[in-house]
Amino acid sequence: MDSIKINNKDLKLSYILEDDLLNLETVVITGNFNTKTKLESSTSISSLDQKELSKIAPRGTAQILQNIPGLFTDASAGEVFTKVYTRGISASAEDDMGWYYVSLQEDGLPISLVQHSYYAPDLFFRNDITTSKLEVIRGGSSSITAMNTPGGIFNFISHKKRNALGGDIQLQSGIQGNNNMSYKIDASIGSPLGNNWYVNTGGHYRQDDGARNTDFTFSKGGQFKFNLLKENSRGYFKFYGKLLNDKTNRYTGVAATNWRNPQPVFGQSFKSTALMMPEFNTSIPDGRNLSSSNNFNPGEGLHAQDYTFGIDLSQKLGKNWTIKNNIKISAKNANWQTSISNAFVSLSNPLAYFITGAQFPIGQIVFRNAQSGNELARIDNSGILNGEPFQYLTEGRLPNDAIMGTSTWLKDNETDELIQQLTLKKQFENHNLNFGFASGLSNTTVFTQGSFAFVTYENNPRMLAVTLENPNEPTIALSDENGVSNYGGLFFGNSRANITQLATFANDYWNISNSLSLDLGLRFESITHKGSNDGYEPFSQDGGLDGNPNTDYDNSVLKPTGDIDSFNYTYNYISYSAGINYKVSNKTALFARLSRGNKAPELNYYFNNFTNVPINKKGEIQKINQIELGLKSNLSTFSIAGTLFYSQLKNIGTSNFEFDENTNSVFYTPIQFNTSETIGLEWESIYSPIENLKFSFNGVIQNPKTKSWTIYDANGTANTTDDMITDYSGNKLPFNPNIMFNLATEYQLKDVSSFVKWQFMGEREANVANAFQLPAYSIFDLGLTYKISNNISTSLLITNLFNSEGLANFYGANSFGASANGATKEFIETYPNTSFIVVPVLPRGTFLKLNYKI
């Protein structure tokens, strides 16, 4: 309440602040060239402030984005190897390219411009309390405001300046899954330094045993972030940086049976099974230089390092001109040491022996525990080539009479990048004009190597040292002492590339009247990929790499041939977007938007699709057309924002990963170019009937379809004479539910606040054949916060309260090299009782936080 004096009389003024339930009056910067409130923006935009972010369990970026309406997010693999997409724009975002169409950003610039298999921006992002806000654009203007990103923008914004010394320190501990512990400490502190200088620093360190059972620490490491801000009368100058040094991993699938109602099999559990190689240390010959070797330990997982420094500058130039430039450089490294695939391989399957690289491992096969040296089983496989089953020769048995079809997976990626965006703004009476130039330069290298590994097929896998011990013959080692076989013989890739992305853009925000505005944008983008892949062949020498004929595990190391398969292609395209916003009142607005976006190929096009063959053509530019109609309304007790959308995605290149049992080789099938379309309604709403009680409801209803779609069937071999192409046009688009939503209630009583949230994921088709459906599932989260004092609070967060066994993903039949698309209706009818691989959602996690506000 304020006092003013009029005609020598004191008058008291009282103010009533109305709740802005959906933050529609909040200014947003993402996806807009001009700062606007959500209500004024002609985009489909959502945001989460620091209070909302604090209510989300710390399980990675995709877990956070599950709270945004209209997004499909798959966090089942953990913090990385996640999938995020919008409005059915998803086809190339499956498997290991989960961020294909969208941009993950920090403070307005992409985290990285490079994407390919096992290399995506989520590898280099860890959220903590240095984030003050998340802004999300779905489709629409993302085509003209970000690089090669038509599907959406996810911008995590750091704290800016504090006018007094302040911040937060947060301690966190938790239990996940089968009593696996998690610990984390966060800090964010800022202060003025005098003379309009301000500093913010912070970061975190964590150690996490993971949500599923492994014999190694699943995640450990942390990051440090800072920004130094100088303000003057014309604008600001900011120097910022991030140092990330973190190790984590990703979960593979679990075996199930019963296509109509999937249930875990082979003693596995949807709640706790990880089915990954245990931790061990070994050295595997480096195919690039056979005189050297690479250290390998599957307990290391992904070691992500990111050293980023940048300058953000904004200055008024006079006569209503403003210049803004944000530029950063980074050095990134992602080193994967993990296992790939965990398929069931029967001991009656010749693959169990011939994948070792040995020529004729027939006779008495001995399996020993690689750690203890104790013999576990001895078998005779002499009749296996005649279709006869193996025979146990002693009382020892292997679990499930099988081994795991798995490979060591070493990927070493290094990338140096420069990313910049310069914008010039000119403000007229009714127009805000923006002109700009964006650029990105990336230099990246990637080396991939895979070796077969003998592992027991059971809940807690063990490494197996395997030998061939026929009477009166020398003992032949089919694996080394750690259980690794066929050194470097399954996968080899050695590639490098330079990416140059250049874009110019123009935008006019025209205030036609006080209630009507028009937003027009145009972007020209040019992307050049220049690089090469090394050709490769098996090492050929009697006795293998070590010259010893009794060690068969080093006989087939893949090495360069000396041939270089080069590529140098440029992709040019124009994108545009036009939006109109009509303010019905100060509380309600309508908007419409028409957009045409483009998506140039990512580097996986060259690295994956042209293995050991010349790169004879450039990839196709995918075309994205979108139409949006939206309503935003902010009433006293009820707020809603809804968008009706249509999206079409054309020129989708699809290819399957295949394994040829005849040659023990892996390959990708020829690319098919397809089209999908989706129509739907996304919404978010909040109702507050009384002051301390809120109900929120957000989600999407949609109809995702394959307009024209074909799949290449290699029939299990690299030989093309028996290949087929199957047409699935008109089917439902895989992994896109018809409905998904979040329904939550929040209540606050004095110093205690609480919430309960229900996340519903509708049934999804598991492949384009529509032969198998992933059932709908529900996840409930609970949160309680108690404010102990003005500076201290404590919170309890429980995610997946009832330990739902929902299934998030599907990898196909439970066999080495199988793919989701191989599970056709005919396959399921022929093999109704076979097992298959699914990826369950993460089990329950309970986290306790103690926060001290400085």
UniProtKB/TrEMBL annotation:
<keyword id="KW-0732">Signal</keyword>
<dbReference type="InterPro" id="IPR039426">
    <property type="entry name" value="TonB-dep_rcpt-like"/>
</dbReference>
<feature type="domain" description="TonB-dependent receptor plug">
    <location>
        <begin position="38"/>
        <end position="153"/>
    </location>
</feature>
<keyword id="KW-0798">TonB box</keyword>
<keyword id="KW-0813">Transport</keyword>
<keyword id="KW-0410">Iron transport</keyword>
<dbReference type="Pfam" id="PF00593">
    <property type="entry name" value="TonB_dep_Rec_b-barrel"/>
</dbReference>
<comment type="similarity">
    <text>Belongs to the TonB-dependent receptor family.</text>
</comment>
<keyword id="KW-0998">Cell outer membrane</keyword>
<dbReference type="InterPro" id="IPR036942">
    <property type="entry name" value="Beta-barrel_TonB_sf"/>
</dbReference>
<keyword id="KW-0406">Ion transport</keyword>
<feature type="domain" description="TonB-dependent receptor-like beta-barrel">
    <location>
        <begin position="244"/>
        <end position="801"/>
    </location>
</feature>
<dbReference type="InterPro" id="IPR000531">
    <property type="entry name" value="Beta-barrel_TonB"/>
</dbReference>
<keyword id="KW-0812">Transmembrane</keyword>
<dbReference type="GO" id="GO:0015344">
    <property type="term" value="F:siderophore uptake transmembrane transporter activity"/>
</dbReference>
<keyword id="KW-1134">Transmembrane beta strand</keyword>
<dbReference type="GO" id="GO:0009279">
    <property type="term" value="C:cell outer membrane"/>
</dbReference>
<keyword id="KW-0675">Receptor</keyword>
<keyword id="KW-0472">Membrane</keyword>
<dbReference type="InterPro" id="IPR012910">
    <property type="entry name" value="Plug_dom"/>
</dbReference>
<dbReference type="Pfam" id="PF07715">
    <property type="entry name" value="Plug"/>
</dbReference>
<protein>
    <submittedName>
        <fullName>TonB-dependent receptor</fullName>
    </submittedName>
</protein>
<dbReference type="InterPro" id="IPR037066">
    <property type="entry name" value="Plug_dom_sf"/>
</dbReference>
<keyword id="KW-0408">Iron</keyword>
